[in-house]
Write a structure and sequence with these properties.
18% of the residues lie in helices and 31% in strands. By secondary structure, the protein is α+β, with helices and mostly antiparallel strands. The relative contact order is 0.17.
């Protein structure tokens, strides 16, 4: 997987930063499509057209794009966070382990 980067605003960091979205590795998908006689094209197309999830390059929080994927990406992250009881770091709601100390979140 590759990354696409753009400037954007993170409301968690309260500043303009580079935001990232994962993109498919097109060379790998091309090779897999050739090896499987084109059957992998279905997977490649689905992965290419799915909506990208943008994340702040500094804090890793999810950015909600307000103007879509192709226009200026300015958004705010979701306010739902879990706080680690061991180190006090703020983590996303969907995380199972702390991003800082790697201990399980309760």
């Amino acid at each position: 997987m590759g990354f696409q980067e753009r400037p954007g605003y993170c409301s968690y960091c309260k500043k303009n930063t580079l935001i990232r979205a994962q993109t498919p590795n097109h060379v790998l998908h091309l090779i897999l499509s050739i090896v499987t006689s084109g059957l992998w094209l279905i997977v490649w197309i689905i992965l290419s057209i799915r909506v990208k999830e943008w994340h702040c390059g500094q804090c890793g929080q999810r950015i909600l794009a307000t103007f879509g994927d192709t226009a200026g990406v300015i958004g705010s992250h979701t306010k739902k966070i879990k706080e680690c009881i061991y180190c006090g770091a703020k983590n996303r709601l969907e995380d199972y382990t702390c991003m800082k100390c790697r201990k399980p979140l309760l």
